[in-house]
């Protein structure tokens, strides 16, 4: 019997926030299938079989559980080792199959049918099925809606009392949007179940002071959690004065959330008890898992498998915990006794060790949090899940993330871009130089340079800062001040030297400061009030920086009152360097009924540079959010079918293996045996409307002359070695050769200098222009990535490149070009030019970038594309060199295919 691909097995989140495990059916499922069918109601059986079918015969069971994973495929969903849903298809034609579902009555309405349709549809496409046929009784409205709302192109007919639905399985924008929306709702709900429990058990609550279990219990009680708290201790009758229970199973009432603080080797047993109890979610503060090595990693995977199989999400292990300041719950399920007050900031931290210090610094600055999650090893719940929740959480207006790795970087950028359109997302990513995943964390090391990660974050609208201090500096503006509408900054103060520092810092940050308004050292509160009124009323002032250092007489309280009052009634942000204070000093705060800091409070920074930098973060974010959305332009001359055929031929010749090719952006080099160039590369590029100049390899001077005659003069003779250009500067090419004598001389000169290893070629000469480099391919973390830079020796040595995720929109392509420091060379007149007609055709370069991005996104078998050089002149963007490296396509690309949770070993 043929085995099934590993990626057909997955954990998924359901619409109510619970989880289920999906996998192909096997003959060993015979008993589970009988039990499942016996639990179905007569109505559900009738809807599935169109007749009463109270019992499955042995023949039925064998037929349903024995499939070939090719023409007959069935997937099952299990929860706590019980089979709760089955979907299957049977081919009836080479590209057509009948599909049928059945979901156990008690689990209907949880989104099982929708997520199973996504997975069975993906499996069918892999097996060449292009259409599903489903026969449904008219009264089975729920199943009809599943098909209709999937977003696929559908047709409907009615015959002999049965509705026949035909679904085109080709993914569409609608089907992708439907899938993403369902994913967002489900993952958001799974986090809400953790953050809004009605009851909490602390398993491992100790009678010994200062232990983890007792600390967690005391913090829950001290935080005035609004529901019952149940200590679990195998012997004690009570812990810190609260009645205790021997196990979670002995608690007489429902338990929504369990805080697990037992030894690592006991955790899985505890999780199994929580599953039997019907607990909805887990916070595992215990250590001794992935951070300890392979044995701990295996224990961590078992923890996650066990929890997800029972429908539970897991925060941790090795984490600080979670908190929700909403007065309806007042949840402090962390190891930190003091939490910041109620606020509008959602905070996610991977580091448990730093979590407590972070919370302390938030409180010291006078800021407030809506929710806080420290994920520790991030074995299950990650920052991506929290972004799904925060997107629709009305209590959260700003999102902060301290990241050490990314479990699914491409999903991170997708979710961050969507969230950032509504709420600022500020991130610190540590370990930028290591390029590895911290010990104990789920996979997510980023095989790209740190500046490339920054480029991709910028594309997604993420405000990436260098450290935690800068994170809080930016958060103060985002959380308590309006967003600036532009880059023009007014500067007001009573210290001429500090005002000049503000102006200089603003210029360095790309802002446009006005000349400072110096009120003098004896300025009064009334002077500040008048200057602020004037600045805030000016149309050409978008934000204001106020510098206040007191004179000998104490007027600071009056100035603070002025700042508060003006800020409260202004739609322009005000930031201050106020007495060298940091945060939101009491004098500058607007305080609510519960003591929380309200919007309109004025952030203060210890130095003018800090204030301007925070304001610059907010300004750049606003510019990103307000820019026109990019579009994917319609491009002529793309022939996907011919590209597939060309690629199959090239793969046959290259014979790559999965290990031959490094990921784009990784440290390993590509195996030269998997490289294609010349006619094969030009053919594949031409399928996507990209024309590459042909070149002819030559090994003698006379051969070079013959090649030049074939191509037509003028020509160039150049070395084709990919690394030679950087080593040799511009000496690797001889250009503007117009006679056979020129060609002979050029060949002999290059051959004498570089030898046969240079791989000399003859190519028709293109008009002078700006040489650039386009590289694209599949990155193990982010998926398809495109990079751009100038083909200049200095640019190469300085690694002046920018990166964006594929496929590129028109805005992405334009941003990618502008992002390199040498970009101004493309927007001026080249040397010797006399008119604008000779300016490089940047629009042609943008279109070329878009075409390359479409190619690598469509064909994961293309591990890496190197177009070097691409000469940009007044007539277009001309590809003068093209090489590709091929590989076996990965089973699953990052963030591709149907919804699934990050995997563990099944």
UniProtKB/TrEMBL annotation:
PROSITE patterns: GNAT (PS51186). Pfam families: Acetyltransf_1, ATP-grasp_5, CoA_binding_2, Succ_CoA_lig. Its EC number is 2.3.1.-. InterPro entries: Acyl_CoA_acyltransferase, ATP_grasp_subdomain_1, CoA-bd, GNAT_dom, NAD(P)-bd_dom_sf, Succ_CoA_lig_flav_dom, Succinyl-CoA_synth-like. Keywords: Acyltransferase, Transferase. It is an enzyme of class 2 (transferase). Gene3D superfamilies: 3.40.630.30, ATP-grasp fold, A domain, ATP-grasp fold, B domain, NAD(P)-binding Rossmann-like Domain, Succinyl-CoA synthetase domains. GO terms for molecular function: acyltransferase activity. Residues 20-170 form the N-acetyltransferase domain. This is GNAT family N-acetyltransferase.
């Amino acid at each position: 019997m043929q085995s099934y691909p590993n990626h057909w097995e997955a954990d998924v989140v359901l619409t109510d926030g619970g989880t289920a495990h999906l996998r192909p059916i096997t003959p060993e499922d015979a008993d589970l299938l009988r039990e499942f069918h016996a639990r179905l109601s007569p109505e559900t059986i009738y809807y599935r079989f169109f007749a009463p079918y109270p019992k499955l015969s042995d023949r039925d069971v064998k037929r349903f559980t024995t499939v070939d994973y090719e023409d007959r495929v069935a997937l099952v969903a299990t929860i706590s080792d019980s089979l709760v849903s089955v979907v299957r298809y049977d081919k009836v034609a080479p590209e057509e199959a009948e599909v049928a579902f059945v979901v156990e009555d008690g689990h209907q309405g949880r989104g099982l049918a929708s997520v199973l349709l996504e997975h069975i549809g993906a499996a069918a496409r892999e097996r060449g099925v292009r259409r599903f046929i489903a026969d449904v009784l008219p009264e089975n409205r729920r199943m009809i809606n599943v098909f209709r709302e999937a977003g696929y192109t559908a047709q409907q007919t009615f015959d002999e009392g049965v509705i026949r639905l035909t679904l085109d399985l080709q993914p569409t924008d609608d089907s992708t949007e439907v899938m993403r929306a369902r994913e967002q709702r489900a993952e958001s709900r799974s986090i809400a179940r953790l953050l809004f429990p009605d009851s909490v058990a602390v398993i491992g609550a100790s009678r010994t002071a200062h232990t983890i279990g007792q600390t967690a219990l005391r913090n829950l009680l001290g935080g005035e959690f609004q529901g019952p708290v149940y200590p679990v201790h195998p012997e004690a009758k009570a812990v810190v004065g609260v009645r205790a229970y021997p196990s979670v199973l002995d608690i007489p009432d429902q338990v929504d959330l369990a805080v697990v603080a037992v030894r690592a080797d006991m955790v899985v047993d505890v999780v199994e008890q929580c599953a039997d109890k019907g607990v909805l979610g887990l916070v595992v503060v215990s250590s001794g898992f992935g951070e300890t090595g392979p044995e701990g990693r295996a224990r961590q995977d078992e923890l996650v498998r066990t929890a997800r199989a029972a429908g539970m999400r897991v925060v941790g292990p090795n984490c600080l915990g979670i908190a929700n300041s909403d007065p309806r719950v007042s949840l402090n399920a962390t190891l930190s006794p003091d939490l910041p007050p109620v606020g509008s900031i959602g905070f996610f931290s991977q580091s448990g060790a730093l979590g407590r210090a972070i919370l302390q610094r938030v409180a010291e600055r006078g800021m407030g949090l809506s929710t806080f999650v420290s994920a520790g090893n991030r074995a299950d719940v990650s920052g991506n899940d929290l972004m799904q929740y925060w997107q629709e959480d009305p209590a959260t207006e700003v999102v902060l993330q301290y990241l050490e790795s990314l479990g699914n970087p491409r999903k991170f950028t997708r979710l961050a871009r969507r969230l950032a359109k509504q709420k600022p997302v500020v991130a610190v990513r540590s370990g930028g130089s290591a390029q590895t995943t911290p010990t104990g964390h789920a996979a997510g090391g980023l095989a790209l340079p740190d500046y490339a990660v920054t480029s991709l974050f910028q594309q997604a609208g993420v405000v990436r800062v260098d450290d935690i201090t800068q994170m809080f500096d930016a958060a103060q503006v985002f959380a308590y001040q309006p967003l600036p509408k532009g880059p023009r900054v007014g500067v007001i103060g009573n210290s001429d030297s500090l005002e000049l520092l503000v102006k200089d810092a603003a210029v360095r940050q790309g802002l446009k400061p006005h000349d400072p308004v110096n009120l003098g050292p004896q300025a009064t509160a009334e002077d500040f009030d008048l200057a602020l009124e004037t600045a805030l009323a000016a149309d050409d002032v978008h934000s204001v920086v106020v510098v206040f250092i007191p004179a000998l007489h104490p007027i600071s309280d009056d100035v603070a009152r002025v700042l508060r009052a003006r800020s409260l009634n202004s739609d322009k942000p005000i930031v201050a360097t106020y007495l060298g204070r940091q945060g939101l000093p009491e004098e500058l705060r607007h305080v609510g009924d519960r003591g929380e800091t309200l919007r309109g409070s004025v952030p203060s920074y210890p130095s003018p540079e800090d204030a301007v930098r925070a304001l610059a973060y907010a300004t750049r974010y606003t510019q990103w959010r307000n820019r026109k959305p990019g579009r994917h332009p319609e491009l002529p001359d793309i022939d996907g079918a011919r590209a597939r055929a060309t690629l199959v031929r090239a793969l046959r010749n290259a014979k790559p293996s999965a290990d031959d090719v490094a990921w784009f952006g990784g440290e390993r080099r590509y195996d030269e045996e998997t490289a294609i160039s010349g006619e094969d590369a030009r053919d594949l590029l031409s399928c996507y409307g990209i024309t590459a100049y042909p070149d002819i390899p030559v090994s003698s001077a006379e051969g070079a002359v013959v090649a030049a005659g074939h191509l037509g003069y003028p020509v160039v003779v150049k070395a084709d070695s990919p690394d030679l250009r950087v080593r040799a500067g511009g000496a690797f090419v001889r250009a503007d050769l117009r006679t056979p004598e020129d060609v002979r001389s050029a060949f002999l000169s290059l051959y004498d200098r570089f030898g046969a290893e240079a791989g000399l070629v003859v190519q028709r000469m293109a008009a002078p222009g700006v040489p650039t480099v386009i590289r694209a391919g599949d990155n193990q973390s982010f998926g398809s990535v495109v990079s751009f830079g100038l083909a200049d020796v200095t640019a190469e040595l300085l690694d002046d490149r920018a990166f964006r995720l594929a496929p590129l929109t028109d805005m992405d392509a334009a941003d990618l070009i502008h992002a390199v420091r040498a970009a101004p060379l493309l927007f001026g007149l080249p040397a010797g030019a006399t008119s604008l007609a000779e300016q490089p055709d940047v629009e042609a370069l943008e279109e070329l970038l878009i075409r390359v991005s479409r190619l690598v996104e469509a064909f994961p078998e293309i591990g890496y594309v190197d177009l070097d050089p691409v000469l940009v002149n007044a007539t277009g963007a001309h590809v003068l060199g093209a090489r590709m490296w091929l590989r076996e396509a990965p089973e699953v690309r990052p963030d591709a295919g149907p919804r699934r949770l990050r995997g563990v070993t099944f």
